[in-house]
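User: Please check token order:
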Amino acid sequence: YLITYKRLYFIMKCHLIFPQKDKRTGFAIKNALKRANVNVLISDPKVIDWTSILNREVSNKSDFVLMSRTAPLYKFLMKYKEIYKDSKTKFVCWNTDKRRNNNHYGADLLGLFKRCDLFYTVAKGDIERFKEIGIEAKWLSQGVDVDTFCKDVEYDSQYECDVAFMGSYPSPLIGGEPVHKGRNELIGYVQDKCKRHGYSFRLYRPYDSTAVHGDELIKACRAAKVVLSHNGFANIGPSPSVRLYEVLGAKGNVLEEWSEKLMETFGAPFFTYIDPQDAWDNIKAIIDFPSAKEKGCPHLKQATLMAHKKCIKDHSYDSRINQILGDIHGNK
């Protein structure tokens, strides 16, 4: 299919409106679009305002616009459709975030989701919830960027630790509640247990000096004995966190929050937990395996390699973009 779509879409123009500075989701989407031979214009909505984005799109005349979950883009979309009523440009939004309920998205984001030609969300359980308020959604989870993860990166001992956590902590608040249910309790509990048992614990937050990207992200994933991953939305599963793909893409040992049908959706085994105590029991089991400290546990290595291969084969951003391109073609 990828080869077919490369032939179908090699002259297509896409206006990609996704954050780029963190070198994560938007960066990976850009890479996948370029590998699909799509001509990409990039606008970072965290850097330029919606009126500037509108002017860029007027000049570009894209075949399709692929947008992130960014509230001001609702004004961009509505203004463009007001000016160019007969435009054939397809507007696509990919919601790579999750919320506890629809109200937490706010009116502008819900308006954006509803008025796009195609709308994707990473949480499969959200599809019915959106449908209740008249929003048609398709499920499209995040993935792994093969440009970043399919390369040799030298092992770096400075990142070694027993347990690492990558993500927002403390969880940000919306409506007075933490966005990620149970995250603060989980991290606090595991940190305390690590301290009591003499295990090292490292935090990598996405928006401060501890953040890691690119090769440094791979090194951090590989050097930790366990990378603790937390979704916070087990009730709308299967909704894998992007960390699951990043850690397995880097051949790290991930411990992911359980959600219904998560394992069969991914298609390969990895460690999961249901609550802080279960997470700690799994951490101890992994670290206390014979020879684990010397990276000599063959079963862990075999499972990690199997999950890595599955991640690259079936869960790359190339396959996600392939689906979007096919849907755009079918939506014409």
Observations:
- The first strand starts at residue 13 and ends at 17.
- The CA atoms of residues 149 and 249 lie 6 Å apart.
- The mean pLDDT is 90.
- The two ends are 18 Å apart (CA to CA).
